[in-house]
Amino acid sequence: MADDRYAFIAEWYDPNATIIRRYQFLYYVCDNSVEMYDIKNRRIFLKRSKCENITLTDLYVGSTINVHSRQLTLTDYADEYTRSKLISKKEKTLGMIKPDAISKLGHILDAIYAGGFSISKLKMCQLGRDEANKFYEEHVGKPFFSELLGYITSGPVVAFELMGSDAVNKWRSLLGPTDSAAARSQAPSSIRAKFGQDNTRNACHGSDSPESAARELEFFFPTAAPPRHNTSRSGDCTCCVIKPHAVREGQAGKIIAAIQESNFRVTAIQMFNLERANAEEFFEVYKGVVLEYKDMVEELTRGPCIALEVTAESAPTAFREMVGPADPEIARHLRPRTLRAKFGLDKVQNAVHCTDLPEDGLLEVEYFFKILDS
Q1: Of 132, 100, 109, 110, whose CA–CA distance to 203 is shortest?
Q2: Looking at residue 1, what is its pLDDT?
Q3: CB under 8 Å to 119, separation ≥6 — which residues?
Q4: 252-to-64, 175, 259, 353 alpha-carbon distances in Å
């Protein structure tokens, strides 16, 4: 395994030439080094060099990675060896948190990370009746169908793409039996045992086969159609961004659980892969003000981040208090119960970004949920 080399086709949008450039991207497990060949010009584009922020976990078709400040999208396997080695380990399935369990969003995500899954896409949506009818089309005509549609459209859901070895079966195993009562007796540590109520209000949905997973993932995360609408309300809200290092370390569920348990509501949530220009624009207010500006931009582009619309009375001020000082070391000394004290590493990798000024709460929320998600 340590001597393995994996090959992908990667694409990079060149903003200067306004074209997409294609490369053969090679990753060497033994020393976390990468190498790139320009496919069109048939020459080396990047000599083999260390890239510490990339691991094998980050590499799968559809992944977005950051290589020396360039954001690449892996679009295909470049050889049969890579395909045969990784395709079974990178199986994808759909997970969905149902309306009755949104209040337990953080705890459910934490159970997913603890179960060894990677989450590669995530979004809160509100399904209309016609959409729900299409999603559950295999149940049309069954006695419980009308009740199911009424329930699944009664509030927001959170859909996500799970990835891992034998993901379809392992996710269904983590969910437990469909009936929550049966789950409590047969699989007491399962998600439905802990968070489900009955046979319909059973916390989460899971695809029952790879074929269903492909169809259901396309339903929530369409490749060609416009993106599904998010649930941002743009009311008395503030913005929270769980930074890539915390997502990569599997801390997102714990962070969201802490937010929900402190009487804040998560009214919109989505996973983003920010390009450098977006990160610079989002952090523009800090340019020339804080020494860490460039490192902050770099961190925000190093992998997926999770943006949240957080609502409460006086949300920007109250949430900022919960997040704590920018420096986690100071937070641990002065305010040890804050998010940055618990989950932050340093001033750049400090777990979460939050809106600093009350008047900017709505602007930052709209940046993610209206501008980037368009």
Answers
A1: 100
A2: 53
A3: 109, 112, 113, 160, 161, 162, 163, 252, 271
A4: 19, 19, 11, 13
DSSP 228: P
**What's the pLDDT at 182?**
96
Catalytically annotated residue among 205, 229, 245, 353: 205
User: Which stretches within 67-209 are classed as H helix?
Assistant: 80-86, 105-114, 129-135, 145-152, 167-175, 180-186, 191-195
The answer to whether 179 touches 155, Cβ cutoff 8 Å, is no
Residue 185 in contact with residue 169, Cβ under 8 Å?
A: no
- Could you give the CA distance from residue 49 to residue 38 in angstroms, rounded to a whole number? 16
Q: Which stretches of the chain score pLDDT less than 70?
A: 1-3
Q: Are 369 and 230 in contact (CB under 8 A)?
A: yes
Element (H, E) at 220: helix 210-220
Spatial separation of the C-alpha atoms in residues 257 and 179, rounded to whole Å: 25
210's enclosing H/E stretch is helix 210-220
Q: b or e along 190-223 (b: 16 or more beta carbons within 10 Å of the residue's beta carbon)?
A: bbbbbbbeeebbbbbbbbeeeeebeebbebbbee
44-101: per-residue pLDDT in tens?
999 999 988 888 888 999 899 989 878 899 999 999 999 999 988 889 999 999 999 9
205 in catalytic set: yes
Distance between CA atoms of residues 366 and 345, nearest Å: 28
**pTM score, whole prediction:** 0.92
